[in-house]
């Protein structure tokens, strides 16, 4: 079975590389900016959905989007961390469902993408009291996160950046004690090799982490990192 899995990953990685070459942040931004109704988050999302029918895109798209919506509605998280903002599709899906006092911290390593993505969040009608874009790597953002959160903890973490970074970043979040006691984790692209390492880690601790739902290659994981279990863990 293993060579088949390795072959599948090889083909998947190749396809991702081809896709990455075709994706143009400037083009996505220009299309969304000119086609959507400014100030209306639903219109921005609908414009993204139209865009991805015709062009290569990293956006999670409507099917996984609805899955994410359901988690955000149910959890009503006050503090959300998104790793891998890209052009802001997932960020907008989250932001429009956050409670009034909720805040999204979103991280994007590519400076141009971070700038264009932030503009799209503003076009969708959100402001800097609702979100903050951190234009740096996930590792750097996590090391500075305590200052952004002060006494707060993360209720929801969405990982769709670099699957090789999923586990190191998750361990860093734990080490910095940035997760709330009952946090929820959304992982995208779980078929990629790096994400598999993360899944192996999570499934090896079923008393702490529960894989709840899956749609396509996106997973919801519930974490019980309360003080007692957390001490046991470290
Ligand atoms: C697949 S896209 C995210 C798509 C987004 N969820 C959406 O639906 O619009 C991944 C993004 O993560 C960014 N990225 C990759 N590695 C990163 C890292 N280590 N830290 C922060 N961002 C990263 C990439 O530049 C890219 O824009």
UniProtKB/TrEMBL annotation:
Segments traversing the membrane: none
Pfam families found in the cross-reference section: Methyltransf_3
Database matches in SUPFAM superfamilies: S-adenosyl-L-methionine-dependent methyltransferases
Keywords: Catecholamine metabolism, Membrane, Methyltransferase, Neurotransmitter degradation, S-adenosyl-L-methionine, Signal, Transferase, Transmembrane
GO biological process, alphabetically ordered: catecholamine catabolic process; developmental process; dopamine metabolic process; methylation
Top EC class for this record: transferase
UniProt GO MF annotations: catechol O-methyltransferase activity
Domain of life: Eukaryota
EC numbers on record: 2.1.1.6
Keyword Transferase among record annotations: yes
Family from the record: Belongs to the class I-like SAM-binding methyltransferase superfamily. Cation-dependent O-methyltransferase family.
Cited PANTHER family: CATECHOL O-METHYLTRANSFERASE (PTHR43836:SF3), CATECHOL O-METHYLTRANSFERASE 1-RELATED (PTHR43836)
Protein name: catechol O-methyltransferase
Organism, scientific name: Silurus asotus
């Amino acid at each position: 079975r293993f060579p088949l899995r390795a072959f599948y990953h090889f083909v998947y990685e190749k396809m991702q590389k081809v896709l990455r070459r075709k994706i143009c942040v400037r083009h996505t931004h220009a299309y969304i900016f000119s086609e959507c109704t400014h100030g209306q988050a639903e219109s921005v999302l609908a414009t993204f959905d139209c865009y991805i029918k015709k062009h290569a895109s990293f956006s999670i798209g409507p099917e996984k989007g609805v899955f994410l919506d359901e988690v955000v509605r149910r959890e009503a998280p006050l503090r959300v961390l998104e790793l891998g903002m890209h052009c802001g599709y997932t960020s907008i899906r989250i932001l429009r469902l956050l409670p009034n006092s909720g805040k999204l911290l979103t991280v994007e390593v590519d400076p141009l993408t971070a700038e264009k993505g932030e503009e799209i969040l503003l076009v969708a009608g959100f402001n800097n009291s609702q979100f903050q874009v951190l234009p740096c790597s996930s590792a750097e953002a996590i090391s500075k996160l305590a200052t952004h959160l002060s006494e707060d903890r993360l209720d929801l973490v969405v990982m769709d950046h670099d699957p090789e970074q999923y586990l190191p970043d998750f361990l860093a979040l734990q080490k910095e004690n940035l997760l709330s006691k009952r946090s929820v984790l959304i992982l995208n692209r779980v078929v990629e090799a790096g994400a598999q390492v993360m899944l192996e880690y999570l499934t090896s601790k079923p008393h702490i982490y529960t894989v709840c739902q899956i749609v396509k290659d996106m997973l919801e994981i519930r974490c019980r990192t309360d003080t007692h279990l957390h001490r046991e863990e470290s």
